[in-house]
């Protein structure tokens, strides 16, 4: 899976929201997307965040289908 390409505005928004986010699930989703953007592999992200690679894939799918709003939803 290739790295993610975020617009500069989206990346800045994710960084701002991560600093304010208190829900760990939402924070982890945002962190995974930023690490994908930085070129980390799924396996490396999964290990760093103590989740499995499929969860990272799901976070990416959620972003691709619903954007940042999808990441921020608690469902």
Structural class: mainly alpha
First-residue to last-residue Cα separation: 25 Å
Quaternary state, please? single chain
Q: Please, what is the average pLDDT?
A: 87
Radius of gyration: 11 Å
Series of H and E elements: HHHH
The domain tally reads 1
Low-confidence stretches: none
Tell me the major beta sheet: none
The count of DSSP E runs of length 2 or more, i.e. the number of strands, is: 0
Strand content: under 5%
CA-based shape: globular
Proportion of residues in helical segments: over 70%
Total DSSP helices: 4
Structure overview:
It is a single chain. With 75 residues, this protein is an all-alpha fold. The protein has one domain. Helices cover 73% and strands 0% of the residues. The protein has helices at residues 8-20, 24-37, 42-49, 53-72. Helix 2 (24-37) packs antiparallel against helix 3, helix 2 packs across helix 4 (53-72) and helix 3 packs across helix 4 (53-72). The N and C termini lie far apart (25 Å). The mean pLDDT is 87.
